[in-house]
Amino acid sequence: MIRIGQGMDVHRLVENRDLILCGVKVEHTLGLLGHSDADVATHALMDALLGAAALGDIGKLFPDTDEAYRGADSILLLKRVIQVLREAGYRPVNTDLTIAAQKPKLRPYIDQMRQRLADAMELDVSMVSVKATTTEKLGFEGEEKGMTAYAVCLIESL
Ligand code: MG
């Protein structure tokens, strides 16, 4: 059986935080604020995977009231989500992510991001797509107040 999932996430941009996207540290003057490493793209992906299996969302799996997840590496959380999926009888097939960010230019990091996610999901990199778009300076992404990430995925029965 094949099932589809979608996820989205938003984090605020602030000073004095690292910018981590798809497990890759991106050079920038601002970073995303959050309880974990605030990797908005990996969070959207995890919600897509959990949604595909109707297993809730990352807020349920990794509550932000839990000190265990303070500053957590979202790639490790993604590995845990893959394990939860496997226990439910599913594995990921492919995924496609879009990151809405006005700055910085993400193109130089895209291949490294795809590889990081593919490794965590135990997939070939050809099954992982990461894209970036600006919002033409419109909205909170365009005003550099935050970033949004959208993810869709397919999962299949083991
Ligand atoms: Mg999040």
Largest sheet data: 5 strands, mixed
Helix % is 25-40%
- Structural class by SSE content: alpha+beta
Tell me how many strands there are.
Answer: 7
Low-pLDDT sequence parts = none
Indicate how many domains the architecture comprises.
1
CATH homology superfamily name: 2-C-methyl-D-erythritol 2,4-cyclodiphosphate synthase
Q: Which topology does CATH recognise? A: 60s Ribosomal Protein L30, Chain: A
Mass-distribution shape: globular
Distance separating the two termini: 9 Å
Overall pLDDT score: 97
Give a quick rundown of the structure.
The protein has 158 residues and is α+β, with helices and mostly antiparallel strands. Helix content is 30%, strand content 32%. Strand 5, helix 4 (110-121) and strand 6 (128-133) form a beta-alpha-beta unit.
Task: State the main characteristics.
158 residues, alpha+beta, 60s Ribosomal Protein L30, Chain: A, two-stranded antiparallel sheet, 5 helices, 7 strands, 30% helix, globular, binds magnesium ion
Fold blueprint:
Elements: E1 2-14, E2 19-21, E3 24-26, E4 31-32, H1 40-52, H2 58-61, H3 74-87, E5 90-100, H4 110-121, E6 128-133, H5 139-142, E7 146-157
Parallel strand pairs: 5-6
Antiparallel strand pairs: 1-4, 1-7, 2-3, 5-7
Bound molecules: magnesium ion.
